[in-house]
TrEMBL record:
HAMAP family: GTPase_MnmE (MF_00379). (6S)-5-formyl-5,6,7,8-tetrahydrofolate binds at R25, E82, K122, K456. One of its GO terms (cellular component) is cytosol. The keyword Lipoprotein does not apply. It comes from the Bacteria. One of its GO terms (molecular function) is GTPase activity. PANTHER family: TRNA MODIFICATION GTPASE GTPBP3, TRNA MODIFICATION GTPASE GTPBP3, MITOCHONDRIAL. This is tRNA modification GTPase MnmE. GO terms for biological process: tRNA methylation; tRNA wobble uridine modification.
Length: 456
């Protein structure tokens, strides 16, 4: 992204396409000059003015509402002019062309309005990120989470922990710098306890954040299992059409099939895979199994399908599938005990060995309702009061900050005050990086704001 922070920028902020209204935003020191040129005056701040939008020659291009925001009381914190014209893509482009023909005014980069809002302390970084999450939200839950993040839910948790770390650091600095002074220093036990309590808070936040990450991200469910268990039948059932070939012939599904479905407006990616026939000698089948393994490794959740008729009710899939025991410990699994029409078992959901097992039949449809309910309640919307929007970047930094606190905890056992202070300082910096404090590295900001659309 451009470093020219002082440029005045302009962009069409609404979707390009025919619509009722189209908005152009101009932000920066020359916005007032743009207002003079296009409207003939600088409108009273924060009032809606019905005006003519004219080109440099004084010819009217459009008529609409102009709103003038005087800095710092604007979205970007700069002087900002908003022109709400008719939603004609052509008229908007002509108007924008007029604006950027004024010297020192250029088209905004993607996300540059939000970046300026962040740089001018109008938003912290998690709040700025939540704007794009809000725009991209694919479910009501995600909208709620993004709004909460925008209101500062996540950053408030972080700020509380940062405050505790800072307070403790100040105390430690006083012990390090004035050990002999007659000041009442914290006891070693107290230091240890405070670090413990900070660590607990960080772990809780990380846990909450990871849950939110899963509930808000596009969840990928991989259907896996042995050949002929009914994986493709389940895939088709969830898709509500015959996308995958179903047959009695073992090894029918060779390639990975991937489709998106919507459940209560939340997008879920469903993946059908080849049966895990590890003894296969067939080269193509072997490639399919390798592909299946890659999908399993990157799943948010696995539906492991078992043929109730041929497979004994042995739900310890780690034992029947030792190749995957490591992955199965990491990715949550639900056992789909399929073909109950053949075994006369009843449709139900039970918990065996701490894992849910759903007995159903893709053939008769029995138990499918239970599966949907489970999917919604336990996988997609398990945290319905989903507090905030979490990104991979946040989770990584939280994890790193937590690791520094663990080091501080260890060092506190030996009263290594200097080392503890340093660990705390690093942890504090990492947490600050989440909310964007002390971020000076332009690439990070560029990465983040580049995912925005132009005009935002
Ligand atoms: N009786 C019965 N047969 C099923 C059921 N689900 C799948 N099948 C049959 O099992 C065979 C294998 O199904 P398929 O979905 O291709 O299994 P995959 O190899 O795991 O993908 C096919 O003949 C299906 O018709 C079920 O619930 N009941
Ligand atoms: Mg199949």
């Amino acid at each position: 992204m451009n470093n020219e922070k002082n440029d005045t920028i302009a962009a069409i902020s609404t979707n390009i396409g025919r619509s009722g209204i189209g908005i152009i935003r101009v932000s920066g020191a020359l916005s007032s000059y743009v207002a003079q040129k296009i409207l003939g005056n600088i409108p009273k701040a924060r009032y809606a003015h019905y005006s003519s939008f004219k080109n440099i020659k004084g010819i009217v291009i459009d008529k609409g509402i102009a709103i003038w925001f005087k800095k710092p009381n604007s979205f970007t914190g700069e002087d900002l002019l908003e022109l709400q014209g008719h939603g004609s893509p052509l008229a908007l482009k002509i108007l924008l062309k007029e604006i950027i023909s004024i010297p020192n005014i250029r088209i905004a980069q993607p996300g540059e309005f939000s970046k300026r809002a962040f740089l001018n302390n109008k938003l912290d970084l998690t709040q700025a990120e939540s704007i794009i999450d809000f725009i991209n939200a694919s479910s009501i839950q995600e909208i709620r989470a993004a709004v909460n993040s925008l209101q500062g839910f996540f950053s408030n948790f972080l700020k509380e922990i940062i405050h505790l770390i800072k307070k403790l650091r100040i105390n430690l600095e006083s012990i390090i710098n004035f050990p002999e002074e007659d000041i009442s220093h914290l006891s070693d036990q107290n230091i240890h306890n405070q670090i413990n309590s900070i660590h607990k808070k960080l772990i809780n936040l990380y846990k909450k954040a990871s849950e939110n990450h899963l509930t808000t991200a596009n969840t990928k469910i991989v259907i896996a299992g042995f050949p002929n268990a009914g994986k493709s039948s389940l895939f088709n059932t969830l898709l509500k059409y015959e996308a995958a070939i179903v047959s009695k012939i073992s090894g029918t599904t060779r390639d990975v099939l991937r489709e998106n479905i919507y459940i209560d407006e939340k997008q879920v990616s469903i993946v059908d895979t080849a049966g895990l026939n590890f003894l296969s000698k067939n080269e193509i089948e072997k490639i399919g199994i390798k592909k299946a393994c890659n999908e399993i490794k990157t799943a948010d959740h696995i539906f492991f399908v078992i043929d109730a008729y041929t497979t004994k009710p042995n739900y310890q899939i780690e034992k029947i599938c030792p190749e995957f025991s490591v992955i199965f410990n990491k990715v949550p699994i639900t056992i789909i005990h399929n073909k109950i029409d053949l075994t006369q078992e009843k449709e139900e959901i039970i918990k065996i060995n701490n894992r849910y097992v759903i007995r159903l039949s893709t053939y008769t449809g029995k138990g499918i309702k239970i599966l949907y309910q489970y999917l919604k309640k336990n996988i997609l919307f398990k945290n319905t009061n989903c507090n905030f929007f979490v990104r991979e970047r946040h989770l990584n930094l939280l994890k790193k900050a937590s690791n520094e606190i663990i080091k501080a905890k260890n060092n506190s056992q030996y009263n290594y005050y200097e080392l503890i202070a340093e660990d705390l300082r690093l942890s504090e910096n990492l947490l600050n990086e989440i909310i964007g404090k002390h971020i000076s590295r332009d690439e990070i900001l560029t990465d983040i704001f580049n995912s925005f659309c132009i005009g935002k």
